[in-house]
From TrEMBL:
Keywords: Coiled coil, Golgi apparatus, Membrane, Transmembrane, Transmembrane helix. It comes from the Eukaryota. The keyword Transcription regulation does not apply. The chain crosses the membrane at residues 68-86. GO terms for cellular component: Golgi membrane. InterPro entries: Golgin_subfamily_A_member_5. It is found in: Golgi apparatus membrane. This is Golgin candidate 2.
Length: 112
């Protein structure tokens, strides 16, 4: 079956063909401008993060005490994450959220 069999269609306008191009769309310049703006913001963000991490690396290279404390911090962080991932709580049958149960416990232990 060819696109000539159906009037008003062409392979250029076929989404399934993968080559759909909005040729005469009035939104095309707007989309192009939004994409370029997003790319500029993303590039700026990446450059800022790179400069932050580069200055942090220079600081850690010059300061041995900060290097030791950063290693201690990362070890503690990893141990905490492992604890969170390995610990499990039994699944309760009620459908109440933990916040509601916690608030009920606070209200019940108030001595009122």
């Amino acid at each position: 079956m060819d696109s000539a069999d159906f009037p008003g269609t062409s392979s250029r306008d076929d989404l399934e063909y993968g080559a759909w191009v909005p040729s005469n769309s009035k939104f095309r310049p707007l989309f192009k401008q939004k994409i370029q703006s997003g790319q500029q913001h993303l590039g700026s963000l990446i450059r800022q993060l790179d400069s932050i991490f580069s200055s942090g690396a220079v600081f850690l290279r010059r300061n041995s005490t900060a290097r030791i404390w950063s290693v201690v911090y990362f070890v503690c962080l990893h141990l905490w994450v492992l604890y969170i991932l390995m610990s499990h709580s039994p699944v309760s049958d009620d459908t109440r959220s933990g916040a509601v149960v916690s608030l009920e416990n606070i209200n019940n232990t108030g001595g009122v």
